[in-house]
Amino acid sequence: MPFYRLKTGIVHVKGTRLPRPCAAHVLIDGHEQLCAAWSTYLCDGPAQGRDTCDMPLCEAHAREIGPNRHLCPACHLSHRYADPQRGLFSSLIETP
Ligand SMILES: [Zn+2]
Ligand SMILES: [Zn+2]
Predict the structure, then answer these.
(1) Of 8, 49, 65, 88, which sees the most CB atoms within 10 A?
(2) pLDDT on residue 1
């Protein structure tokens, strides 16, 4: 039963098959905390040891890089700085 940060504050939601709370970090009152908003996306970025990063992301933290492809802030950074000639992200097309 995950906790979510909703407009009303941290809410403990009961139930199964709920999306994981957003794992991006945000600064709240000067402290780095989990965003924990209701996630609607999973990061499609590469990860060591598994296929994709799979970080749960809310609307605010998902960076859309193509149709149904989203990156977390960390993967988006390395995506932007990755050399496009190296092939790691060459199958992904950046949308404006
Ligand atoms: Zn978030
Ligand atoms: Zn990621």
Answers:
(1) 65
(2) 72
